[in-house]
């Protein structure tokens, strides 16, 4: 089986290649088959491989396809390294990806650029797989940039609309900023270890660097820079909300389930570096915490369904960062998986709604959809519950609870981080159910046509089930102790032990978390369902308005960057359009012409002046010959 | 003759030369310019004679003869040209002949 | 001998093309195409015929030497090593494309056009092959005049100005190089009593630091202007934007490379000490170029001008890498030369296609072409991505290697260079947006690429992908010559003996073969 | 004079005879063609007679002449040039109504003057040669009497030339006065004695330089050049630009090397200043010039500046460089003016840039030839001009004349501009489809001119691509001129 590893990324690539070459000439059905099939097959292979992995329990599978290049000891190859971590990612990518592709066949059914869409989607899946399967950082970087490109292509999919193009460019450029940091990190790594092979680095790093070594910290921070860029964390998060300009399946796949978690993967992958660089790791945690709060607040204020989800994505990834930051590695990955399920679910539901309301995304214009589209309602509700981490029944609870728990009780746990996480959880459930109530309850505001078909609902159901039960593979030990996932991760990522005296009364904190999330739901119910009047009275207060505007604009980061970087750059570029340096040379030319005019005055054509000229020359020469 | 008189004679030639030179500079009438150039040439001739007599050689006078002949030839061509110029410009003012400049 | 043939074929082809115009209007095109293809075949044969392994200690594949002006010690020396071979492959590949592009674009004086085209190529071939400094300068100039005509006769509206500028800049710098060459010649002559322009012998010259510095600047002048490096770049945008497509392609794809080649071949090995002390400044220039070019590119509205400035930016990497003095950087530089040649060339070709259809180069007039010309869109996308250094395409390998190398030499400058990549993203995406995405102010009919144009574009895409995914053959070919250039920086003494003593007898030996 | 003397002076004698014969024939019966043929034949004969003197070591005809390799080479150069010019003249004068025949007599005479110059070793012969050359030139310049520009040029040249030769003569007189001999060798010996030059002698040299400088049209004695070039008939212009300068330059080199002028910083300084200012002034004056003949005039000024660089190098390489450069420059200049002459019509010479607009489209081959000439003037490879410039640069670098060399480079860059400007004009596509060329004489007339142009272009390329042969010849020449190899 492990000889077919290369097929996993190869199939989507092949699919997209075929679609690029012949897409325009193929029938939609064929395009759909190619697009969905390629991903489907790699999902299949992944599952088989995963089963084999579970049964054999090897440390990892390794396959080199070919040597990429080799210069003076720098020889990265196109090679894949599969261990538990990457398998989880591959599974999520291919499987969720497959579902989303399936969904898209219906969602994009009447789009002119059907084939282009699937070409890009496949390309994306392929690059994402490259990213998580790469055995060296350069190949990882290839996937890393590849997904960047695809998100650019897909966000700007409806390119006729300038706003979309803007969002697309924004996404690409901002992530590129992060990538630059990462690239520099790679340079340092290469300089230090003479290779970019991940395993080699992980093994050598502890020997070369002591804990807290300056270089290690530097590298850690640089890698973090890359991660932050891709995962839409502070301070490079601004692109993600705009990224919703793309078709909804794209948002689901790229900006919820997979790509944005690349940062999480990178950090988890290079965990050794971060353990050697406590400062960097703390930074991860802090960034996570701060981001999840900021994003949460922004989510509270949004009206665009997808933007709410986008901000919630940011904040959920914040949780993952938090987990990684406090060293709860497997918890972070676990949350990634669960989040992938329910966030994809939520987006797809949103997509269904938007489609039904012919591309209406404003929640204020929605409402009362509970009756009209029950499937979507229930699935969405499940997703929401999981996102809000409603206790016991949802897997979101287990994953998030784990994070919160280790944030407090982990070796480098910290009360403030914990409180941030807790408060974040509260906000999360508030905005989640705000969303639910605004969309599905109350009076219908927009007439909907063509309710979702099978191709749409099936993925929803599957994802709904996953986001309910997916969490049951990892249950707190004081509660039907079950640790399949962390056991799976154990060989790859270091485990974590809770501080004893807290561990005694862990249940207390679980209850607390449960209460908080339920409380959030209640608040949402209060404001958006029971007595909206309170909300309005609140909104009228000037402070609230200001805050609202501030949060609505995502804490004004966009404006900040615009005025700080973009505008000055464009201004600089435009004033120098004619290239100042050129004028220097033209100046020289003018000077020469000036001299010409001057000299040609002497050629007056008058004989006596010529004679005079000679006389002057004579005097000159004679004086020289007499004086010298 | 003593050297000092040689110097004096040479000085005379020099003065003559300068006179010619200046009058070429200030005269506008082409004929006069031609004449002044001749003066300069004769000054040079005189200088040759002086030099020749200084070294008691005939060469100086030989050169003078050369100069005279050459001057004659030059003047003849020159006058011919001046005629042409006069035909065309109806004047002998050398400053008028400045079609070509720049 | 086969080396000589490569040049002769081009020159003869050129003359033939010129005269054949009388017989039949299309004949010149075919003759030109045939001549270049023939050379390409030869180069390819040489490449495939010599597995990289076979280039062992001595990088020289073959050499020929015949006296030319014995009185001055000028010999007609042609020598081929991996580096030159790669450059030749690039030259002829792009040459073929250039002929194909002009098929419809050039309508007047086709005979004379192809004459110039082929002679430019001949000059470039000579530059890449010759190992005699006089001859080098000779070819260096020979490639300029036809280029001047290409710009000045078949160029766009403002062609005269551009042509002057190009010619005067390159000439001025070239003359400085000539002075340096002469200086080297006399210094070496007075040392050894053997007055010669032979590269291999001049390599051995000991120079006082002062002399070395001045001579190096002489050479640098020519190469930096040609590259171009920022304060001396201002000829390039005009020349590129006013030249006919074929001209721009050759300018961007080949002429700039001669500068880089010169740096590698002459400046590095001839003046080891001087270059080392100059290196930081050179790298600084490179970084300035990268960023300055990117900024200018961002603000341009003339498509070809925009692309021109992008090559200013990309050439910054070349000088950055050259003066890092290590394998990674130099390999990166070689890759950059090739990859940039292709990607920028391709962008110019696309600009040409658009110009043929719309008769404007102003991107303000364009837009929304994705829907009208998807093929063109895809191809443009590939090369735009290449120019912003997307992994998987040739330029990425080039830039990454260069940066890895330059990082070893100088951290901060490398950081700034890397930032330049972000700016590259900005201007590259601007191309896509203006030309293919945002709707156009006015609606033009825009036929998609036809068969001939696909025939031009597709190979380039294939090659750039190949370079990105499996560049090893290139790297292997370049390796020995790069070691050669670098020896001065590892153990100077050995290098001198090696080149001056070992290489030359071998050269003689080769000639014996040639004679037989 | 012994018979061997006659043998050695054969070329000059042939010319003299030719001039007389022409006169008689004209007296008998005017016919352009016959005169033309006689002239051509006599030039060829004179040239061939030089082969008798090949590889000769200095043969002195005391005190006036010495016939050595150097002299022979220069005479050869002059004769060849004169021949080519006469070739070009035929068509040019054929279409004009003036009496054409005397032109050839004058041509021969001034050539004779130039030849006399380069072999003379005595002030007398120097003066004689110079004046024979000039007096003939006066009338050549103003040969087309009906054009007032021609007369204006003539009178200007006459006055100024006479003026400058007065300086020359006075200078000679002073030198003679202070050293007591007029033979170069004598002067040399006299001077080698004294370390510091006496004032009179220096003044004398200074004035001689003025006289020579005028003929060479170097700054500040250059002002006549553009006007005379413009006014004179194109072939005559070619003659002034080449033959007369070759003669003067030849005698200058001879004299200077003989007396070893390079020992005296004063003279070096003067020449350096003159060289630099000629280069700069010449190029800047030509920069925006609209009249091709004037452009060529100014460019000739700067080219003389280049030559002086090599001259100042003062070693054998320098002299070789000068000689080589002269050959290249003559080929080029004659070619250029040949083209001008070809394109000229009855009324006026084709001298305005406008006359050349779109030439490539009207007369591709002429345009190509002219382009080649201009490129050679600009010193671009594949042409003789490049090798010449290279040679001069080499000479300059070999003696570390960095200032001069730098100036040379700078100026050849400036120079590029106006040469290219002419080319650019020729290559401009005419907006209106090429108007029908003006009525011309029957093609057979142009046979000579076309042939000459072809020959010149080929020469240009051959010398440019394979200079070895010419270099060899020149080096041999100086091998047989002992006193030159002194340094």
TrEMBL record, chain A:
Entry keyword set: Membrane, Transmembrane, Transmembrane helix
Domain NADH-Ubiquinone oxidoreductase (complex I) chain 5 N-terminal intervals: 68-118
Main location: membrane
Subcellular location: Endomembrane system; Membrane
Pfam families: Proton_antipo_M, Proton_antipo_N
Signal peptide: none
NADH:quinone oxidoreductase/Mrp antiporter transmembrane domain location: 134-428
Topological type in the membrane: Multi-pass membrane protein
InterPro entries: NADHpl_OxRdtase_5_subgr, ND/Mrp_TM, NU5C-like, Proton_antipo_N
Residues passing through the membrane, by range: 6-23, 30-54, 78-102, 114-132, 138-159, 180-202, 208-229, 250-274, 280-301, 308-330, 336-357, 377-398, 418-443, 455-473, 507-528, 607-627
PANTHER family cross-referenced by the UniProt entry: NADH-UBIQUINONE OXIDOREDUCTASE CHAIN 5
NCBIfam families assigned to the protein according to its UniProt record, in alphabetical order: NDH_I_L, PRK06590.1
Protein name: NADH-quinone oxidoreductase subunit L
Organism: Pontibacter anaerobius
Automatic annotation (TrEMBL), chain B:
Catalyzed reactions: a quinone + NADH + 5 H(+)(in) = a quinol + NAD(+) + 4 H(+)(out)
Domain of life: Bacteria
Matches recorded under InterPro entries: NADH_UbQ_OxRdtase_chain4L/K, NUOK/Mnh_C1-like
Subcellular location: Cell membrane; Membrane
Known EC number: 7.1.1.-
Bilayer disposition of the protein: Multi-pass membrane protein
Transmembrane segments: 6-26, 31-51, 63-83
A molecular function (GO) term: NADH dehydrogenase (quinone) (non-electrogenic) activity
One Pfam family, short name: Oxidored_q2
Keyword tags: Cell membrane, Membrane, NAD, Oxidoreductase, Quinone, Translocase, Transmembrane, Transmembrane helix, Transport
The protein's role, per its UniProt record: NDH-1 shuttles electrons from NADH, via FMN and iron-sulfur (Fe-S) centers, to quinones in the respiratory chain. The immediate electron acceptor for the enzyme in this species is believed to be a menaquinone. Couples the redox reaction to proton translocation (for every two electrons transferred, four hydrogen ions are translocated across the cytoplasmic membrane), and thus conserves the redox energy in a proton gradient.
Record PANTHER family: NADH-UBIQUINONE OXIDOREDUCTASE CHAIN 4L (PTHR11434:SF16), NADH-UBIQUINONE OXIDOREDUCTASE SUBUNIT ND4L (PTHR11434)
Quaternary context: NDH-1 is composed of 14 different subunits. Subunits NuoA, H, J, K, L, M, N constitute the membrane sector of the complex.
Family statement: Belongs to the complex I subunit 4L family.
Annotated NCBIfam families: PRK05715.1-1 (NF004319), PRK05715.1-2 (NF004320)
Full protein name: NADH-quinone oxidoreductase subunit K
Organism: Pontibacter anaerobius
TrEMBL record, chain C:
Gene Ontology MF annotations: NADH dehydrogenase (quinone) (non-electrogenic) activity
NCBIfam families hit by this protein: NDH_I_M, PRK05846.1-1
InterPro entries: NADH_Q_OxRdtase_chainM/4, NADH_UbQ_OxRdtase, ND/Mrp_TM
Name of the protein in its database record: NADH-quinone oxidoreductase subunit M
Main location: membrane
Domain NADH:quinone oxidoreductase/Mrp antiporter transmembrane: 131-423
Chain segments annotated as transmembrane: 6-23, 30-48, 68-101, 113-131, 137-154, 166-187, 214-236, 248-268, 280-299, 306-325, 337-355, 376-397, 409-429, 449-469
From TrEMBL, chain D:
Location relative to the cell: Cell membrane; Endomembrane system; Membrane
Superkingdom assignment: Bacteria
Membrane topology: Multi-pass membrane protein
Matches recorded under InterPro entries: NADH-Q_OxRdtase_suN/2, ND/Mrp_TM
Swiss-Prot/TrEMBL keywords: Cell membrane, Membrane, NAD, Quinone, Translocase, Transmembrane, Transmembrane helix, Transport
Record carries keyword Nuclease: no
Family label: Belongs to the complex I subunit 2 family.
Protein name, per record: NADH-quinone oxidoreductase subunit N
Provenance organism: Pontibacter anaerobius
Higher taxonomy: Bacteria, Pseudomonadati, Bacteroidota, Cytophagia, Cytophagales
């Amino acid at each position: 089986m492990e000889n077919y590893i290369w097929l996993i990324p190869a199939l989507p690539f092949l699919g997209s290649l075929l679609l690029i070459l012949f897409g325009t000439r193929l029938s939609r059905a064929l395009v759909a088959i190619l697009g969905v099939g390629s991903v489907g097959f790699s999902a299949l292979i992944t599952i088989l491989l995963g089963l084999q992995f579970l049964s054999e329990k090897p440390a990892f599978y390794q396959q080199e396809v070919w040597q990429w290049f080799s210069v003076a000891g720098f020889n990265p190859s196109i090679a894949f390294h599969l261990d538990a971590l990457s398998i989880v990612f591959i599974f999520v990518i291919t499987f969720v990806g497959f579902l989303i592709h399936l969904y898209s066949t219906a969602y994009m059914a009447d789009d002119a650029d059907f084939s282009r869409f699937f070409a890009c989607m496949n390309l994306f899946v392929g690059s994402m797989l490259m990213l998580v399967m790469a055995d060296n950082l350069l190949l990882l970087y290839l996937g890393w940039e590849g997904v960047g490109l695809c998100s650019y292509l897909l966000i700007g999919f409806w390119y006729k609309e300038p706003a979309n193009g803007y969002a697309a460019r924004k996404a690409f450029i901002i992530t590129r900023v992060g990538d630059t940091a990462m690239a520099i990190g790679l340079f340092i790594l290469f300089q230090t270890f003479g290779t970019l092979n991940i395993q080699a680095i992980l093994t050598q790093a502890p020997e070369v660097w002591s804990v807290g070594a300056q270089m290690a910290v530097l590298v850690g921070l640089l890698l973090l820079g890359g991660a932050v860029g891709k995962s839409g964390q502070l301070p490079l998060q601004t692109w993600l909300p705009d990224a919703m300009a793309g078709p909804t399946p794209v948002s689901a796949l790229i900006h919820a389930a997979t790509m944005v978690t690349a940062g999480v993967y990178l950090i988890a992958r290079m965990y050794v570096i971060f353990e050697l660089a406590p400062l960097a790791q703390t930074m991860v945690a802090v960034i996570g915490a701060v981001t999840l709060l900021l994003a949460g607040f922004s989510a509270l204020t949004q009206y665009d369904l997808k933007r709410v989800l986008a901000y919630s994505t940011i904040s959920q990834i914040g949780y993952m960062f938090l987990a990684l930051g406090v060293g709860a590695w497997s918890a972070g990955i676990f949350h990634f998986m669960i989040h992938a399920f329910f966030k994809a679910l939520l987006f797809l539901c949103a997509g269904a709604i938007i489609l039904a309301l012919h591309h209406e995304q404003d929640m204020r214009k929605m409402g009362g959809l509970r009756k009209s589209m029950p499937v979507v309602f229930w699935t969405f509700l499940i997703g929401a519950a999981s996102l809000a981490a409603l206790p016991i029944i949802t897997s979101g609870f287990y994953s998030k609870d784990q994070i919160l728990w280790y944030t407090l009780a982990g070796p480098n746990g910290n009360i403030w981080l914990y409180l941030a996480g807790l408060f974040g959880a509260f906000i999360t459930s508030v905005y989640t159910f705000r969303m639910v109530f605004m969309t599905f309850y109350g009076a219908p505001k927009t007439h909907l046509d063509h309710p979702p078909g099978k191709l749409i609902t099936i993925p929803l159901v599957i994802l709904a089930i996953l986001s309910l039960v997916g969490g049951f593979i990892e249950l707190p030990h004081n509660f039907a102790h079950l640790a399949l996932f962390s056991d799976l991760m154990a060989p790859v990522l270091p485990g974590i032990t809770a501080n004893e005296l807290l561990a005694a009364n862990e249940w207390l904190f679980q209850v607390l978390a449960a209460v908080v999330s339920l409380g959030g739901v209640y608040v949402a119910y209060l404001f958006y369902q029971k007595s909206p009047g309170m909300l309005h009275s609140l909104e009228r207060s000037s402070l609230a308005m200001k805050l609202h505007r501030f949060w609505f604009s995502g804490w004004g980061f966009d404006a900040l960057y615009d005025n700080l970087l973009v505008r000055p750059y464009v201004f600089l570029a435009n004033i120098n359009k004619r290239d100042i340096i050129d004028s220097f040379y033209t100046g020289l030319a003018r000077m020469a012409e000036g001299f010409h005019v001057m000299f040609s005055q002497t050629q007056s054509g008058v004989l006596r002046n010529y004679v005079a000229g000679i006389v002057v020359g004579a005097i000159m020469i004679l004086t020289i010959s007499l004086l010298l | 003759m003593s050297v000092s008189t040689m110097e004096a004679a040479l000085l005379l030639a020099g003065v003559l030369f300068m006179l010619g030179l200046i009058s070429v500079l200030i005269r506008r009438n082409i004929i006069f310019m031609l004449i002044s150039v001749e003066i300069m040439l004769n000054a040079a001739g005189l200088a040759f004679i002086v030099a020749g007599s200084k070294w008691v050689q005939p060469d100086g006078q030989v050169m003078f003869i050369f100069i005279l002949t050459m001057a004659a030839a030059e003047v003849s061509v020159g006058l011919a040209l001046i005629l042409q110029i006069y035909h065309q410009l109806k004047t002998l003012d050398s400053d008028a002949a400045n079609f070509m400049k720049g | 001998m086969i080396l000589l043939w490569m040049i002769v074929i081009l020159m003869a082809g050129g003359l033939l093309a010129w005269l054949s115009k009388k017989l039949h209007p299309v004949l010149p095109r075919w003759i030109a195409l045939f001549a270049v293809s023939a050379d390409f075949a030869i180069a390819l044969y040489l490449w495939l015929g010599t597995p990289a392994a076979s280039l062992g200690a001595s990088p020289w594949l073959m050499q020929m030497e015949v006296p030319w002006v014995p009185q001055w010690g000028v010999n007609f020396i042609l020598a081929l090593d991996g580096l030159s071979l790669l450059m030749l492959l690039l030259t002829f590949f792009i040459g073929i494309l250039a002929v194909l592009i002009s098929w419809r674009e050039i309508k007047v004086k086709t005979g004379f056009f192809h004459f110039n085209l082929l002679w430019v190529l001949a000059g470039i071939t000579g530059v890449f092959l010759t190992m005699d400094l006089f001859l080098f300068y000779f070819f260096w100039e020979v490639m300029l005049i036809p280029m001047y005509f290409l710009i000045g006769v078949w160029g766009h509206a403002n062609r005269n100005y551009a042509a002057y500028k190009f010619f005067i800049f390159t000439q001025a710098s070239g003359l400085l190089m000539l002075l340096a060459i002469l200086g080297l010649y006399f210094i070496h002559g007075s040392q050894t009593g053997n007055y010669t322009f032979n590269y291999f012998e001049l390599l051995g010259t000991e120079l006082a630091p002062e002399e070395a510095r001045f001579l190096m600047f002489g050479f640098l002048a020519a190469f930096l202007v040609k590259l171009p490096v920022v304060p001396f770049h201002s000829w390039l945008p005009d020349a590129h934007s006013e030249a006919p497509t074929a001209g721009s392609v050759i300018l961007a794809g080949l002429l700039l490379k001669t500068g880089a080649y010169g740096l590698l071949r002459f400046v590095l090995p001839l003046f080891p000490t001087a270059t080392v002390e100059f290196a930081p400044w050179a790298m600084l220039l490179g970084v300035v170029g990268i960023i300055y070019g990117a900024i200018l590119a961002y603000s341009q509205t003339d498509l070809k001008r925009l692309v021109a400035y992008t090559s200013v930016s990309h050439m910054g990497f070349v000088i950055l890498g050259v003066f890092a003095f290590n394998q990674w950087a130099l390999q990166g530089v070689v890759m950059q030369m090739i990859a940039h040649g292709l990607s920028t060339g391709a962008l110019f070709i696309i600009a040409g296609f658009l110009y043929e259809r719309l008769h404007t180069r102003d991107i303000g007039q364009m837009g929304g072409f994705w829907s009208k010309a998807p093929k063109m869109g895809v191809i443009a996308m590939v090369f735009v991505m290449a120019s912003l250094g997307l992994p998987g395409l040739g330029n990425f390998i080039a830039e990454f290697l260069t940066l890895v190398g330059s990082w070893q030499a100088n951290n901060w400058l490398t950081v700034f260079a890397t930032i330049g990549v972000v700016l590259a993203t900005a201007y590259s995406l601007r191309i896509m947006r203006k030309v293919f995405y945002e709707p156009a102010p006015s609606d033009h009919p825009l036929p998609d690429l036809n068969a001939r144009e696909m025939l031009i574009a597709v190979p380039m895409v294939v090659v750039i992908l190949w370079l990105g995914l499996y560049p090893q053959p290139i790297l292997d070919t370049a390796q020995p010559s790069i070691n050669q250039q670098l020896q001065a920086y590892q153990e100077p003494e050995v290098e001198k003996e090696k080149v001056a003593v070992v290489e030359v007898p071998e050269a003689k030996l080769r000639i014996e073969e040639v004679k037989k | 004079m012994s018979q061997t003397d006659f043998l050695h002076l054969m070329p000059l004698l042939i010319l003299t005879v030719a001039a007389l014969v022409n006169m008689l024939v004209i007296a008998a019966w005017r016919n352009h063609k016959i005169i033309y043929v006689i002239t051509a034949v006599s030039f060829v004969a004179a040239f061939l007679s030089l082969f008798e003197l090949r590889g000769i070591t200095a043969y002195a005809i005391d005190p006036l002449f010495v016939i050595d390799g150097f002299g022979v080479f220069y005479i050869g150069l002059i004769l060849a040039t004169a021949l080519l010019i006469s070739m070009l003249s035929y068509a040019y004068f054929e279409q004009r109504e003036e009496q054409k025949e005397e032109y050839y007599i004058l041509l021969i005479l001034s050539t004779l003057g130039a030849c006399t110059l380069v072999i003379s070793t005595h002030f007398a012969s120097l003066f004689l040669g110079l004046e024979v050359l000039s007096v003939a030139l006066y009338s050549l310049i103003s040969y087309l009497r009906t054009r007032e520009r021609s007369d204006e040029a003539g009178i200007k040249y006459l006055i100024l030339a006479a003026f400058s030769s007065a300086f020359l003569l006075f200078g000679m007189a002073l030198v003679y006065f202070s050293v007591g001999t007029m033979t170069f060798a004598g002067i040399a010996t006299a001077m080698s004695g004294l370390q510091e030059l006496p004032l009179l002698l220096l003044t004398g040299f200074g004035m001689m330089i003025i006289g020579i400088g005028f003929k060479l049209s170097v700054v500040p004695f250059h002002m006549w050049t553009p006007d005379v070039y413009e006014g004179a008939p194109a072939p005559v212009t070619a003659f002034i630009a080449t033959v007369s300068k070759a003669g003067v330059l030849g005698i200058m080199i001879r004299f200077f090397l003989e007396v070893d002028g390079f020992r005296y910083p004063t003279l070096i300084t003067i020449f350096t200043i003159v060289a630099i200012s000629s280069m700069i002034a010449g190029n800047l004056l030509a920069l925006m010039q609209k009249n091709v003949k004037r452009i060529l005039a100014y460019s000739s000024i700067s080219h003389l500046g280049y030559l002086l660089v090599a001259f100042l190098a003062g070693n054998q390489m320098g002299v070789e460089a000068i000689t080589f450069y002269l050959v290249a420059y003559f080929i080029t200049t004659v070619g250029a003016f040949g083209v001008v002459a070809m394109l000229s019509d009855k009324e006026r010479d084709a001298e305005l840039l406008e006359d050349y607009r779109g030439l490539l489209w009207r007369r591709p081959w002429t345009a190509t030839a002219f382009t080649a000439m201009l490129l050679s003037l600009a010193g671009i490879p594949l042409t003789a001009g490049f090798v010449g410039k290279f040679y001069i640069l080499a000479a300059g670098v070999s003696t570390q004349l960095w200032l001069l060399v730098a100036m040379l480079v700078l100026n050849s860059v400036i120079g590029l501009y106006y040469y290219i400007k002419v080319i650019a004009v020729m290559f401009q596509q005419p907006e209106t489809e090429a108007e029908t060329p003006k009525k011309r004489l029957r093609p057979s007339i142009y046979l000579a001119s076309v042939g000459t142009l072809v020959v010149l272009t080929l020469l240009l390329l051959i010398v440019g691509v394979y200079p070895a042969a010419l270099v060899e010849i020149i080096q041999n020449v100086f091998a047989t001129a002992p006193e030159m190899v002194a340094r």
